[in-house]
Structure formats: C-alpha cells, structure tokens
Amino acid sequence: MSDSTSILIAYFNRHIPLNNEEEAAVRALFKERRIRKRHYLLQEGDICINNSFVVEGCFRMFMVDKNGKEHNLQFSIENWWISDLYSLFKREPSRLYIEALENSIVLYTTIDELLQLFEDFPTFSHIFRILTQNALVSHQHRILQYVSSTAEERYRDLAEKRPELFNRVSNVQIASYLGVTPEFLSIIRKKIAKS
C-alpha cells in the first residue's frame, strides 16, 4: 500500500510540495483497489461515489447510445484521475461506464472524504483547482477539435499528445474515441504511413 500512496504523494508534490502532515493525510485517506481487465469501476445507473487515481493500468470511460453503440470519452493511464464528475458531484445515476482495459490498481476516496480533506488542508483544494482547470482546458480543446478538425487531424493530435495509448488501447477503442469507424481509422493510418 505504501508504494501506491508514495506514487500519489509524488504526483501531488509535482504540483505543490506537501508537508509531513499532508502526506500522512494522503496515506490515511486513500484506499487501494485492484481491478482486473474488463471489470468496471462504474456502470451506467450507479452513482459515482469515488474519485480514483490510476496507479497502474489503463481505463476507458464510455457511454452507450440508444442504438447500443459505444462512445469512448476518456482514456486514463498512470497518474491520471478517472470518475464521472457529474454523477460524483450531483450524486445522480451515471450515464457512463468506466472499464479497466488492463489489470489495474487505483487509489480512491469518496467525494465526502475529499471535500473534508480540502477543509482540513487547503493545499489539496489548491492542487485540485489546478487539476480541474487543466481538465477543463483539455476537454474544451477536445470539443473544439471534434467540431472543427478532420478525423486525420484528430488522429495526428492524439498520436502527438498521447502516443503511449497506441500500444495499450485497441484500434477499435481509438476509433471510437476519435468518432470514426475502425475501417476509416485504418485508411487514415495507411495514408499517414505513405506520406
């Protein structure tokens, strides 16, 4: 357990250095969970009660539309957070799934525990404000890209910004994330390989 929390403490320290009391709070608060490949952290209809930090492994967050088609919204690997923020903060049933794509380890805490941590240690409130701002910028970039870029441009951007995903996530999952069919993704990849 100490190895996992040490990873999380190092992550926090990259944003704002923690003092000994804050490090002790992290060790006391966050709990470890191991999730096997193809198992879920969250399923549609559940209320998301945990905010999870990925220590090891890879997850996808996706929704299933009324026709049964899956749409990948996010991939999270080591040193990323994953949860349905809407369900977490609104305490309403989720419309999303969070699935492990590999055998994985997360550290998690409930939203109530996290909010208490913010009260007890303002440093964490500041860190999570930075994380939230970064996430909002990233999501805004993705939305703008989705409405104003070609599929090839979206693929190139993903390959440049998150190349590690291509060794860990199937082409079918990448295609879903980019909003194209696997066949069209194959055409894009062949075109790029020729140029």
UniProtKB/TrEMBL annotation:
SUPFAM superfamilies: cAMP-binding domain-like. InterPro entries: cNMP-bd_dom, cNMP-bd_dom_sf, RmlC-like_jellyroll. Residues 33-119 form the Cyclic nucleotide-binding domain. This is Crp/Fnr family transcriptional regulator. The lineage of its organism: Bacteria, Pseudomonadati, Bacteroidota, Flavobacteriia, Flavobacteriales.
